[in-house]
Structure of RidA family protein:
Amino acid sequence: MTGRIEARLQELGITLPAPAAPVANYIPYNLSGRLVVVSGQIPLREGKIAFTGKVGAGVSMEDGRAAARLCFINLVAQVKAACGGDLDKVTRVLRLGGFIAAGPDFTQHAVVMNGASDLAVEVFGEAGRHARTTIGVPSLPGDAAVEVEGMFEIG
């Protein structure tokens, strides 16, 4: 039987990928009590970075938002693994942290990060409303345009 969150993902036309393996000396997520802390996820699609470069300088705002959305999809794939395959165990999206690769004059980081935040609410409803930090950075691993990390509560 498909769970409530899986059904919602299907309604949105989202198929979760296999969780990405770490590329360095870290783990993809950490569990502590009812918390799942997920390492930063880049906009991987089928094993390749789908959005590279700097937002506002070669990467459009629309593509930046799409990159943040894809990062959130990859976060959810990690959370699903942490929950033993049952996303209905997620009781709340507590926090998202966004890193936006951009030049020094770019100021629309929050708009880009809304790609992830909006999807969190679309998928998890009111439980998807979260605290958030969004930071502009000069570069990200693999020249990714965006990276998003998260903290989730499970029951």
